[in-house]
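queue> holo job accepted (flavin-adenine dinucleotide)
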Amino acid sequence: MTFQLTEEQRMIQMTVREFARKEIEPIAGKWDRESLFPEETISKMAEMGLLGMMVPSEYGGAGLDTVSYSLAMQEIAYACASTSVIMGVNNLVCEPLLKFGTEAQKQKYLVPLAQGKFIGSFALTEPGAGSDAANQKTSALLKDNFYILNGTKMFITSGSHAKVFITTAVTDKAARHHGISAFIVEKGMPGFSIGKIEDKMGLRASDTTELIFENCRVPSENLLGKEGEGFKIMMAALDGGRIGIASQSVGIAQACLDAATRYAKKREAFGQPIAEFQGIRWMIADMATEIEAARLLTLQAALLKDRGLPFTKEASMAKLFASEMVNRVAYKALQIHGGYGYLKDFPVERYYRDARVTTIYEGTSEIQRNVIAKLVLSTED
Ligand SMILES: Cc1cc2nc3c(=O)[nH]c(=O)nc-3n(C[C@H](O)[C@H](O)[C@H](O)COP(=O)(O)OP(=O)(O)OC[C@H]3O[C@@H](n4cnc5c(N)ncnc54)[C@H](O)[C@@H]3O)c2cc1C
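queue> job finished
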């Protein structure tokens, strides 16, 4: 195993870094304060191929590997966590379409999603089905070549801006998770509407909404995979998604570290820069070390996925460690800023709020621990 990036991976990292530092970082604070969806920037990112990075070029994507995707996510998240979650979810939606979609579904939905012409949403969570994702109440009944969907989805990223939604509904209640099917729903389908737009602590430039299905008519050709495969399809997508959230966490954490070191070198107390105090230096050392550990776990999971090897455990480990790490790092970065860190004048206040959700979405830390423990305990001696 080599820890060296290829020439192409390094080039992607540098190109996305330059773009994010120039075009995103200076305005991310304004987007956060005003809860502005970064529409124009997302269009530019689409032109750069960042919205369908792992989709082959024949389906409109960039045809890159997961390592490159992780590097790009880290750079975008460094500048703006909200923008990175929009990018992450779009890439997340592409995966099941690529793996399970029919050729017609790929042409109609995957190509524009990968090109960034459509924004995508991944709609699994319901008011009563978060960690217990199989406890779905949304139902789908097949009638005259249409599935009739009824129910509510909750916490859906990009809900009010998306054109295409991958969602789930119960087609056979008795079969529990084997009775859940996946569907491709389009904005504007009869009976489909966007509900409440949530008012969040962080990620304020990314919208999070309810989705409401009231006798929503979805053509039967929009069933993704076979009936009863929906849970499997969504869980498989989340394995890859967790690499995305781990990458996002590493990106926010690096931004915290850079902000904290800059500040520590300038701010003086007791006649010297606070960076001279051992208490501050050790915080910086711990932050840098933890970020590096999380980065390596994340890239390892990405590399396994690229090699076609099992990566569920490693993706969960990366997501668990990186998301808990960024919360510790954001705490320390704010501490190093003293009272100024608590003000909105410094970006560390935004990083601190944005970091918080990473241990919650795409599977809470507790759920990641359940996944990891199950796989560790099932290993033969
Ligand atoms: C900003 C944001 C964006 C989101 N975007 C999306 C999206 O785009 N699409 C989507 O489908 N969902 C999305 N979600 C939903 C997210 O995935 C869920 O919030 C998450 O899975 C947790 O579900 P819950 O909120 O219902 O919490 P619950 O499942 O009710 O959990 C509450 C607490 O109980 C713990 N818990 C539950 N079960 C166990 C267990 N077995 N063992 C130990 N502890 C347990 C949890 O870890 C947690 O601490 C988003 C959420 C947020 C906040």
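queue> Residues 89, 122-125, 130-131, 155-157, 200, 203, 208, 357, 360-364, 366-367, 370 surround flavin-adenine dinucleotide (CB under 6 Å).
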